[in-house]
Every structure is written in C-alpha cells, then in structure tokens.
Amino acid sequence: MKKLLLMLSMALLVGCFTAEAQNSMVITADQPQSTISEHIYGQFSEHLGTGMYGGLWVGEDSDIPNTDGFRDDVIEALKELQIPNIRWPGGCFADEYHWRDGIGPRDERPVRINTHWGMVEEKNQVGIHEFMRLTELIDSEPYISANVGSGTPKEMANWIEYMTYDGNSTLANMRRENGQEEAWEVKFWGIGNESWGCGGNMQADYYADLYRRYATFAKDYSGNELFKIASGFSDDRYEWTETVVEEAGYQMDAISLHYYTLPTGEWQKKGPSKDFGEDMYFSTLKQGLMMDEYVTRHSTRMDKYDPEKRITLAVDEWGVWTDPIEGSNPGFLQQQNSIRDALVASTTLDILNKHSDRVRIANIAQTVNVLQAMVLTDGDQMLKTPTYHVFDFYTVHHNTKLLPLHLNAEQYEYESESIPTVSATASKSDDGTVNLTVTNLHASELQEVTADIRGIDLSSVSEARILTADAVDAINTFDNPDNVSPQDYTDYDLKEGELTLRIPSKSVIVLRIR
Ligand code: AHR
C-alpha cells in the first residue's frame, strides 16, 4: 500500500512537471508535406530612395569598394542569405519603367523623373545589364516586373526577346553589342504591378483582359520558359483574385498578393520604427499575423478554379511599413529595423512555409535601405538588420519538406487582446536533418516549449542559434551594429526524441537536429 501511494505521488509529481511546460508541439517527421520552395525567401529591390542607388549601386568610379559598380560589402552580406530570386525594377516604378532607357553606354542614357518616389532624377545607370550582373554577383535568379500600366504589349515582347532569344534577330544582336553574348535565362516575369492602383487604376475585368493580351505576346524563346505572374490585390480584396483567376487563370503561373504590416493598422499614421513600447510591439506582431488569414482566403478563392493548386500565390511584396525616419525624404521609405520587425519576419515566414502548397514565391520589401530591409547603408558604412539574421536562420528551410507541426501555445495577452506566444516551422532536409525555427513573441516572459518529434531517431543538435534582445525596440546602429545579432543557443535538452526548449522573450531560435 505504502509503495502504491509512493508511486501515485510520483506520477502526480511527473504530471505536475509536464503540465509546467507552457507550450507543446508534436512534429511528425515521417509524414513530410509540401516542398518549401526556396523562392519563398526572395527579395525585392525597387528604384526607390537609396534602395538601388547608393545602397546597392555606387558606380565603378566610387571610392566605396565595388565590383562592376555594386558595393562589395552589401554583395557579400546578401550572398550569405542565399537569395533565390530578386524582384526588379518595381513596385510602382515598374509601370513607368521603359527598358530601352537602361541599355547602351551609361553616359548616354536618358534622365527621367521617378514620379512615384520623391520626384528624383532617374539616370538609368542600373538597367537590364547591370541588374543581371547583380543577380550573378549574389547568385540569385531575376524576377522582372514588367510595365503594363504605361507600356505596350510590343514593348514587353521586345524586352523578353532582347533578354532571352539566342538566335539571330535585331534585338538579340543589340544585346550582344551591349556586351551580353549569351541569352539570359529569365523565368519569373511579372505582368503589371498593383494594376488596381499605381499600376494603372484598373478594374478586375479590365485587367484580366489586358493580362490575357500581354501574356499572349510573352513568348518562350530558345528554351527559356517564362513563369508568368499576374498582378493580384493586397490584404483582403478577394474579389480581384477571384475575377482575374477565373478569367485569365489558364494563362498564368501565379497571381500576386501584397500585404504590408502597419504597426497601427492605419496608412495615414503607420507608427514608428524606433523608440516605441509594448503597445506598438504587440499591435505590429498582431497585424503581421493577419497574413495567415489573407493567404488562406485568397487561396480558397483560387481553389474554386484551381483546386489542384497549379497556380501559385506569389506574395511578392510583404513586410513592416512604418512612418519614415524623421528628417528623411518621405518618398524614400526609410525606416529602422528592430527585433520586433525580425519577429514579424519569422512569424510571416512560418505562415508562408505552412502554406507552401500554394505559396511558392514571395519577396520581402525591400532589400536595402527601404522598408523592412536586410541591410542599411550610410555612405561607406553598412549594417545587417535584425531581419537579416532571421533570413539567415531560415535558410535551413530552403527546398526542404514541410513537416506537420501541431502546436499548443499559450496566449500572449496585452490589454484586452491576445496572440499565440509561439510560432514555429519544422522541416526535413534530404539528408534527414530536422530543421526547427521557433519564435517566442512574448515581450517579457520566457517560454518553455516541449517538442515531441515522432517518426525519426534524433540524437544530436548540429546547429543552435538564437536572436534576441533586451528591449522590444532594440535596433542595430552604425555605432553598435551587432546590438541585435545571433548568439549560440544552449538552453535546451534533447532526450529520447523529446526536445525541451527554454526560449527567452522576443527571440527566434534555429535548431538543426539529426
Ligand atoms: O514597396 C513599396 C511600394 O509598395 C511598391 O512600389 C508598390 O508596389 C507597393 O504599393
């Protein structure tokens, strides 16, 4: 009897101990799901502010060390992120860009006005050849966003021929005269950008017809197969997606979705990128999580005409958009980048990974100096933002298989609202490694997470890193560029397939387990 009582109280104790784990997840490692395309980790680089000029391109004669005009420090940093594709030249800029302006001798190129972004001079120093050199330098695929709003089908058809035809034609020969003998491979081709807004203020039916017309003349030359991306809407405008897919879906490979996270949720007063408290921290994370609903609902509308999910939902603009930094040109969209924004990146990437059966390409806005950037520059200085480090962590998921992950998470309550405390992705690489990224969104409380990883024998952790900070608005500055930077992560136990993680508040961790 005494023995039985002892056993009972021990069982109770164990029970209490298990119940202490605030969050739990079950990962089924032998039931891989969709492939997480590396293209979900794409970037977007528009001719906007100092995103291209100054941030990436300084010109061959600059004192800033560069290769063929692109600054070495930025190229080096971007290369580490294994960027699969980079979208160019816009954005809103794309629908007023004419590709012939950017070819031939640089000192003879026309000067235009960038009417969308600050009315500054566009000297066309970066054109097709320079952009393609950039893709080579960072080992990335080009994603060209072509002009529909102020262009013509002929102009676009000529652009494709110029870049991709390897035979004898006046346009292909012009490319050769301009220094590029071989035809380029260009897969991703956007047909218009925000055609409902800055790209022409069109209505869905009209755009669907126009898309069909442009897509008809967007030809595959010399074995180059275009992946045609239609302009989708943003946020919750589901009717546009439905109309365009219904009427033109048979001619497209993808339709886009744009969603920007505004800290306040208001375009008129978006909220600050630095010097904020828990209110702005919480509301930004909450807004960021809306991506799940938008992707789910756009995808459901697409299911009506495309139940096999042949057409990709291309989330080709996303990220945090705040008020511009005080004193900066408001048309340059310059903002700081904090641990908060890094957590929006990690939770958004978790959402996109989860929807990787439908979302097979995405592009964060924007790579350098604009909106939620990877790197910031000032003259010859450069720093990596907290968001950069999240993209670095998440390279483990590129081209892996998504694993089913059932998460039981505590709620992070703030005033009268709440969001889940934990977000995560589990994936499996070809060599059997299980990759796990976990975010603790709570502003002040450590979270314990137990992960029961089934269907695989795991015994060792080959990589464990953490990105965390001491304040919700912690940022990197040119004086303190490593304030928010990765550290080794050690606060975990792995025993018989069960992993226990203790994750400090406002952190992202990455683990690779074998
Ligand atoms: O990324 C900034 C702008 O946001 C893009 O140019 C446009 O497509 C969107 O409205």
Mean pLDDT: 95
The CATH homologous superfamily of the largest domain is called Glycosidases
**Structural domains: how many:** 2
CATH fold annotation of the largest domain:
TIM Barrel
Task: Give the helix/strand class.
Answer: alpha/beta
What is the molecular shape?
Answer: globular
Bound molecules: alpha-L-arabinofuranose
Total count of strands: 28
How much helix is in the residues? 25-40%
User: Architecture of the largest domain, according to CATH?
Assistant: Alpha-Beta Barrel
Oligomer: single chain
* Beta-strand share of residues: 25-35%
What does this structure look like?
It is built from ten helices and 28 strands. With 514 residues, the chain is of the alpha/beta class. The chain has two domains: 24-32 and 403-513, Immunoglobulin-like; 36-260 and 292-400, Glycosidases (TIM Barrel, Alpha-Beta Barrel). α4 (153-164) runs parallel beside α6 (204-217), α8 (278-303) runs parallel beside α9 and α9 (339-354) packs parallel to α10. The longest helix has 26 residues, at 278-303. The two termini are 44 Å apart. Alpha-L-arabinofuranose binds next to loops.
